[in-house]
Amino acid sequence: MQPSILLASGSPRRKELLEQLGYQFAVIRTDVEEMRQRGESPFEYVSRLSQDKALAGVALSPDSIVIGSDTIVVCEQNVLEKPSDYLDAKQMLTQLSGRAHQVMTAVTVANKQKRETVVVTTDVWFKPLSEQEIEQYWQSGEPCDKAGSYAIQGLGGRFVTRIEGSYYAVVGLPLYETDQLLHKFL
Predict the structure, then answer these.
(1) Rounded Cα gap, residues 81 and 131, in angstroms
(2) What keywords tag this UniProt record (predicted)?
(3) CB–CB of 108/51 below 8 Å?
(4) Which H helix or E strand runs over 119?
(5) Phi, psi angle pair for 27, to nearest 5°
(6) 81 contacts 64 by C-beta, under 8 angstroms
(7) What global pTM score does this model have?
(8) Residue 141 and residue 16: Cα distance in Å, rounded?
(9) Which residues of 116-126 are buried (b: 16+ CB within 10 A; e: fewer)?
C-alpha cells in the first residue's frame, strides 16, 4: 500500500496547485511560527519554514509523506511578509512599484526517514503604482494574507509586467519541482 500524502498548508492556492498534479492527498494544519531568525538569509528563512512545516506534519502523521511549503517576497534583501494592516501593505507595494523583486518558494517533501528541499526563485517586475491603485487594491481584500501584499493569480496580476522563472512558484507551489520531489518518495 502506498503511503498517504499530506499537504501541510492551509493555503487554498497550494491545495489547488497540488490537485493539478493529480495526486490523492489530504490537508493538515501545522502550527509553525513564521519568524525570521537573526542573521538568516531570505533563502535560509524560506527553506527552514518549509522544512519546519513538513517535519511538523511528519510528527503528526509518521507514516505519511508530507509536503511543506513557504513563499516569501524579497526586495533588496528585505523580506516582505504578509501585511499587518493597510499602511504595511502600502509600504510594501510602494517598494515593489516600478521595479523587480524576487519571489522565493521553498518546497520540502519529508517522511520519517528523509527530507528533501528545493527553493525556486522567480524574478517579478511591477509597473509603477499610484497611491490610488494601491488603495483600491487594498480595498479588494486580496492583499491581506499574501506575502508582499499581492496575488499574481488575482487582481494583483495587473501590476506584473513580466516574470522570469516559475509562475506556479509565485502562486505558492512550483509544480515541476514538487512533482520531481514526490517521485523520490513514491
Answers:
(1) 20
(2) Cytoplasm, Hydrolase, Nucleotide metabolism
(3) yes
(4) strand 115-126
(5) -105, 135
(6) no
(7) 0.95
(8) 20
(9) ebbbbbbebeb
| CA atoms within a 13 Å half-sphere pointing along the CA-CB vector of 109 | 18
- Number of alpha carbons in the 13 Å side-chain half-sphere of residue 49: 21
Cell of 57: 506534519
Please, which residues bridge with residue 163 across strands? 124
Cα of 5 vs its chain's centroid, Å: 19
Residue 113 φ/ψ, nearest 5 degrees: -95, -35
Catalytically active residues are: 70
What is the number of H-type helices and E-type strands within the chain? 6, 7
- Block residue for cell numbers 487554498: 12
How crowded is the C-beta side of 7, counted as CA atoms within 13 Å?
A: 21
Give the tens place of pLDDT for each residue, 39-71.
Answer: 999 999 999 999 999 999 999 999 999 999 999
Hunting for cell 503604482 — which residue is that?
Answer: 129
For residue 139, count CB atoms less than 10 angstroms from its CB and return exposed for 0-12, middle for 13-18, buried for 19 or more.
Answer: exposed
Helix (H, G, I), strand (E, B), or coil: what is residue 6?
Answer: strand
Q: Is 127 helix (H, G, I), strand (E, B) or coil?
A: coil
d(CA 47, CA 45): 5
pLDDT tens-digit profile of 138-153?
Answer: 999 999 999 999 999 9
Q: Is-contact 178 171, C-beta < 8 A? A: no
